[in-house]
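Request:
Um, any thoughts?
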Amino acid sequence: MAFALPRAEPRDTKLTTGMESDASTSPRRRSTSCYSDSGDSSCSEPFSECGSDDLSFTPAAAAAAAGIHRLLLSCAAEASEDAISSLVGELESPSPSLDSLRRAAMELRLLAKHNPDNRVRIAAAGGVRPLVALLSHADQLLQEHGVTALLNLSLCDENKAIIIEAGAIRPLVHALKSAASPAARENAACALLRLSQLDGAAAAAIGRAGAIPLLVSLLETGGARGKKDAATALYALCSGARENRLRAVEAGAVRPLLDLMADPESGMVDKAAYVLHSLVSSTEGRSAAVEEGGIPVLVEMVEVGTSRQKEIATLSLLQICEDKAVYRTMVAREGAIPPLVALSQSTSARPKLKTKAEALIEMLRQPRSPSLRARSAAVVAAE
């Protein structure tokens, strides 16, 4: 099953962190609350948002600018080609002052924040390469401006290839790892997400540059927005390149994903479930999901989740059960059949979801039948 990432401009969402759980050794927790990121999420996309340029002006930032009024106007204004070329020229000056660099970088960041035409003009004026160069600058504020300006430019599909060709992937991965500002790290994750949407080659290149373990770390230890951006970027990277799924499993992504899925209060149930679904398409991902106690979490999601969560959990269980008879036995013993029967008989469930539930029920009732394994594989492939 393919899940498209919408290309709408991002905005911030406040989330809570996931809880620690040991589903492999503890009885499955029976929740009376519905797994939902935002009410009934059956009609919305789990990855409809990505962290945005949430600019807050520090005293140093304001002092470096020509004035707060001018900066706020720049945020929405359409700049002339001459004005943009002048700002790019300041970044490329052989001996610029720190204040001059900060002002030019901030204005380019703001010009690209909301205005699509400005994004095209900045790239056409040659602004991408000097912004990439800022990612390795010692000044924390310049680093943040450079990362976030690139994020804003990457919202334009035409700019993604230009940013990659300018050599931005490795500096962005380095910023994700070591930028002093949390905002810079989060915006680096989001910029990498945007670039990964270009094509499979871009997603693979980002994985090879070492982004996956850093995103898993952000998923585990980041703030509310950081966790959301990490999950979204992991989904894009793992969906875009098969090799990234193994990298994510080896980096330990399964455990934090399950923790978030098991906690309805995390606000991350859908996102984590979709990333896990991508990982269990590989043998290594299925093994990790079972070893980390994923079966109880998925079964509970089938029982009490939203329509979309029931569907993604059912499909993930199908993939797991198709792999080994012992996994099918574990799923059946966890009590999956009654909620699957209820799902298959639901008048509100989509026909495709009923088909998945019925295939899984048949497999669980005769867990050693090779023909049923083949049928399950056909159901998954059809999606």
